[in-house]
Structure formats: structure tokens, C-alpha cells
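Table S2 (text version). Query chain:
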Amino acid sequence: MTVTGSDIVELDRIAVCEALRVVGLARDADWERDTPCAGWSLRRLVAHMTAQHLGFAAAARGAGLEAAYWREPEDMDEPARVHRMAATAALTAFAEPGATEREFALPELGGSFPGRLAVGFHFIDYVVHAWDVAAALGVGLELSDDVLAAALAQARRVHAGPALPGPGYAIAPAQDVTRG
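Corresponding C-alpha cell output:
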């Protein structure tokens, strides 16, 4: 499956919108629930997601090396609202003409990457994190088989690239999965 720059932006938009939908289902009592992310409450996961949106939006505009954009917000009293604002910033930045042709500085990944690849990283992240939120809330994820297949193909391309730096790196090595 070959994914063009406009395709990856659309796939990312779909994944981000699904993440927004499931985050929007959380109620006040849900924010301290555990998530599949070891040691993270739902509030902490959504803070991370918010920071990633803001960091990637900054990277799309040439400011990815500015650490302030990658910090989790201190005020997470209204996680869904804060997350929605950050998601809008990322979607808007990715939709700008030429965004996928620019270099994105992504400090967590150790360098700069072509925009299409960087948006692909964001896409994978939001498919995974949408699932994390849905699992924490006990709700279903509404992503089509085509979107999930594109995410898997994108993840395989990431793991087919240069060796990953190791423990603590933002992307873990591929794992063997057995069907049960």
C-alpha cells in the first residue's frame, strides 16, 4: 500500500477524530482510571496526547526543537477540552499546503524527518492511543479495517528502517504476536 502525503494527512485526521470521540466519552469519574499504558491514568495519557499534538503542530511549522511545545499541560482540569484544542492545532498544521514536504524536527525520535513520515508517526500514535483510551473506558474503537491496515503498514515501515536506539525510545521494537 503506497500512501501519499494527502493520504497520510487524511488517515491521521480519521485517527485523531476517533481519539477525540473516545476522549469525549470520559466523565469526571473516569479521569483517574488506569490505562493500558503502565502507570498512567486516563488524565495522564490525555496530557501526553495533548503534548504530542502540540509538539507535532510546532514541528510542522518549523518549531519542533522548542521544548516548550512538547511539555504536558500543567492544567488538566478539563482534559477533553484541552486535548481537543491541541488536536485542532495538529490537524490544522498538517492540512497546511506543503506540510508533508517539510522537515519536522522530532526530538523524541532523535532527529528531523520528512513531513509525510512524521505525520505517519503521528497517525500510528493516534490509532494506538485511541485504542488505549477506548480500552480504559471499556468502549469500542470505531476505525475501519482500511485505516487499521494502513496503520499496520506504516508501523512496519518504521520498523524496517534504521535500528531503533533502544530502551526509553519513543518507538518500541516490533513484537511477535500470536493469534488466540
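Notes on Table S2: The chain is about 55% helix and 5% strand. The chain has one domain: 5-159.
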